[in-house]
Amino acid sequence: MAEWQRTHTCGQLREEHVGQTVTLNGWVLITRKFGNQVFVDLRDRYGLTQVVFESDAAELFATAEKLGREWVVSITGLVRKRVAGAERADIATGAVEVEAKTLRVLNTCPPLPFSVTEFPDEELANEDLRLQYRYLDLRRRSIQRVLIQRHRVCKVIRDFMDSNQFLEVETPLLGKSTPEGARDYLVPSRVFNGEFFALPQSPQLYKQLLMISGYDRYFQIARCLRDEDLRADRQPEFTQLDVEMSFVERDDIITIMERLAVDIFDKCLGVKLSTPFARLTYAESMAKYGCDKPDLRYSLEIVDISDIAAQSDFTVFKDALAAGGMVRAINAKGAAAKFSNTQLKPGGELPKVAETYRAKGLYFMKAEGGKLIGGIEKQFPDPLKEALKAKLNVVDGDLLLFVADKENVVCDALGALRVHLATAMKLYRNWWDEKAEHDAVEKKKEKEAGKKKEKYAPVPFQPRPEHFNFLWVTDFPMFGYDEEEKKWAAMHHPFTAPMDEDLEHFATDAGLGKVRAKAYDMVLNGYEVGGGSIRIHRNDVQSRVFQILGMEVADAKERFGFLLDALQSGAPPHGGIALGLDRWCMVLAGTTNIRDVIAFPKNQKARDLMTGAPAVVEPRQLKELGVKLS
Ligand code: ASP
Q1: What pLDDT sits at residue 454?
Q2: Is the shortest distance between the CB of 532 and ligand 1 below 6 Å?
Q3: What span, in angstroms and rounded, lies between the C-alpha atoms of 529 and 272?
């Protein structure tokens, strides 16, 4: 070991080391000079150690005074107890400090574009700047924590899968397009000019082929690439836990994934989830919550009141019903006083939400003094009002909101309104919001401790099971009709099996809208955090799906011939799922920004601000690839 190399990390020293001579390597977080002492906070990914330079060692002291932030140093010194009262309870090494005897500057660092310290009131630098200098940003303690946690999540997954006989198998990045519904990233072939590899949108076909090859329990922490418009929770390349199993039914996959979720939450967040998770069919979910990934931390159920509306005098409702539509309502319990008439009338806050989802209007009534008043109250004679009250379980203070339209519009509008109301009325708490409040209280206590502040160790926040609402949505429709393209599209992907009891509808084009798929989604707090299906394992059924999706036989053979052949070569019944690892890590880390849980993410426009990718390439390279820019 070279003399400068560390004997301990910056997070390691405790009282038991007092009296030992140690060498630490790390980065200078900050330096402070107090009279005849220079204090250096030395940092590495394990923690922080206070190093003291005493002025009696004049030369050493002079060098220490010149140390800049983020310089890399090696310090050899004596571990000693901090003076009484100067201990820090909030860091693991807080009982001790190192009195420096030797200082070696291993490297210097120019002034930083932003600070990597994270003092309590310090604001983060602008995200673009942090992404441009991501290697500096990654030094921040909170990002380190997230990456360490992400590592831990992967480790828990691998251990769990391994102990359940799953094999991790890597599948190609350079392959053929797998239709998951997004645009492919294409890679031109140099050897075969004019031909392209597609980067995988998922390992879907490979994992199915592995089942056919007999690897009956597969998983992979797989990188997937989809060229789609980005949102806060999307990146062009993302990671999923990809799983496939043979000789299974839906419930086998659901059960094993629930066990995995329990393990991850227990080991990575200290939260004990209980299973089984709730289940809803797609039809129930759409009817009650207006979407297929409802957040059930709050109720706000949608109720169909078409039968009552049909007897009312309100032409808007009657016309919608006559056109084959429906009238549905939400009873926002206790919300009457929370929303003014201005917020409820056309152009107001709530109607605007409904209109964003194509609803022509949003109508309301309030419950007061045992009566329904305001809004469209006059359109409903008293007996109908009583019927509404009974059906919607109305008590004084409630606010009733109605939308009338075609089913999909009613679902979308009321579904969105449900989320809007829950947020506005604070019907749920994200654990990180509660943590922020908790931390603020802890900080206040720390302040109140005054001089004894260093002695106060803030109590860490512990998330609880009720912060996490898991559920399964099952029985999705197999196909959705694309009105614009005038053709059927697969709701999950084209390899999903139809339900056995719906096979009769599957045979005829007229019945296609009724076919349900053996597909399921895992939902957490209103986010889809996983999705999968039992697959088609018969060539004839798969060929029929391709045909329904508008693929000519020759085309299907050309694109998926290998799969159709494989399905004829001893394909076992199989199914699987994929969990969006980045989203899981976001929830576990308590962030809503996917870039926070990825070491080197792209920005919102799919550009890597650090390397500048994507970038122009040499004309020579394009020529080799046979690519001409127009
Ligand atoms: N391939 C699917 C996806 O990436 C998951 C699955 O069906 O297993 O969404």
Answers
A1: 57
A2: yes
A3: 18
Place of tokens 């999950």: 492
- Which protein residue has the closest C-alpha to ligand 1 atom 7? 532
**C-alpha torsion sign, points 331, 336, 338, 339:** positive
Q: Which residues, in sequence order, are CB contacts of 511 under 8 Å at separation 6+?
A: 504, 505
Instruction: For residue 188, say if its preceding peptide bond is cis, omega within 30 degrees of 0.
Output: no
Q: What backbone phi and psi angles, to 5 degrees, belong to 445?
A: -60, -40
Residue 78: pLDDT over 60: yes
| Residues 567 and 538 sit within 8 Å (Cβ to Cβ) | yes
Q: Are 74 and 24 in contact (CB under 8 A)?
A: yes
Closest ligand 1 atom to the C-alpha of 244? 8
Is the peptide bond prior to 614 cis by the omega test (within 30 degrees of 0)? yes
Alpha carbon distance 111, 94 (integer Å):
28
- State the pLDDT at residue 340: 95
User: How is residue 51 written in tokens?
Assistant: 């190093």
- Secondary element (H or E) of residue 143: helix 141-163
Reported as a pLDDT band with limits 50, 70 and 90, residue 452 is low
Tell me, what DSSP letter sits at residue 608?
Answer: -
Please tell me the distance between residue 303's alpha carbon and the centre of ligand 1 in angstroms. Answer: 32
Half-sphere exposure of 125 (CA within 13 A, CB side): 17
- Contact present, 452 and 393 (Cβ < 8 Å): no
Q: Give residue 450's pLDDT.
A: 67
CA dihedral defined by 512, 513, 517, 523, rounded to 10 degrees? 160
Output the 3-class SS for 452-485.
Answer: HHHHCCCCCCCCCHHHCCEEEEECCECEEEECCC
State the pLDDT at residue 445.
86
Dihedral of the alpha carbons of 498, 500, 505, 508, in degrees to the nearest 10 = 70
Name the residue among 195, 193, 199 with its Cα closest to residue 624.
Answer: 193
Probe residue for ligand 1, chosen from 226, 491, 492 as the CB with the greatest number of ligand atoms within 8 Å: 492
DSSP 3-state of 423: helix
Predicted model pTM? 0.95
> Under a CB-based contact definition with an 8 Å cutoff, are residues 304 and 391 in contact?
no
Distances (CA, A) of 45 to 18, 25, 151: 22, 11, 14
How does DSSP classify residue 240? E
* Range scoring the smallest mean pLDDT among 44-58, 189-203, 451-465: 451-465
Asked if residue 517 has its Cβ within 6 Å of ligand 1, the reply is no
